[in-house]
Amino acid sequence: MWNISSLSLVILLVGTVSLSGFNRFQDCNSIDRKQLREILVQLGYETKDLVTDPGKEKYSVTLTRSGLDVPIGVEISGNNKYIWLTVSLGSATAENVTKNFGLLKQNAKTQPCHFYVTESGRLMFGLPLENRGVSNTLLRERLETVATRVGESESLWK
After folding, report:
1. pLDDT tens, residue order, the chain (158 aa)
2. Taking the domain 28-157, which CATH number applies?
3. What is the tally of helices (H) and strands (E) in the chain?
4. DSSP states of 68-82
5. Exposed (0-12), middle (13-18) or buried (19+): which is 6, by Cβ within 10 Å?
């Protein structure tokens, strides 16, 4: 039968194994721009360099959803806290006020992805991803989400 010392040893061993296994998956380090590109290549995406200036690197990968090729820009924010996945959907014109209102309503369905307009008047679709603990699996899942949401909403923005 179990005595106090053997029971204590079992609890200690189970706790140690659980904590060490748990910590192994709690890697909260951020990745840098070079690592981001390496992950995209490892995932099998044809990765294009859009911006090559040191510290401002931006990449592009294209996924096809709903018969639509969706080029997704991938970059790390200037403060290194976020990885932005963005898709340019063309110009946002003042004549399209009704369509633009529909896109704002669509944000409730596509969140955490969202439609937005840049200062230069480009209609964009984006998803910020916190740059902590980023794995190949997580990045692929987020890229797939962006491409799927753009494909599903094509009738609203085209």
Report:
1. 555 655 454 454 444 444 444 444 456 889 999 999 999 999 999 999 999 999 999 999 999 998 899 999 999 999 999 999 999 998 887 777 777 788 888 898 888 999 998 999 899 999 999 999 999 999 999 999 999 999 999 988 88
2. 3.30.1460.10
3. 5, 6
4. EEEEEEEEE-TTSSE
5. exposed
State both tokens at 43. Answer: 């995932």
Query: H or E segment at 85?
Result: strand 82-91
* Six-digit token string for 80: 């290194």
Angle at 60 between CA 93 and CA 89, to 5 degrees: 15
DSSP of 102-152: HHHHHHHHHTTSEEEE-TT-EEEEEEEEESSS--HHHHHHHHHHHHHHHHH
End-to-end Cα, the chain, rounded Å: 72
Half-sphere exposure of 152 (CA within 13 A, CB side): 12
Q: Where are the domains of the chain?
A: 28-157
Please state whether the predicted TM-score (pTM) of the whole model is above 0.85.
no
- At residue 121, what is the residue type? G
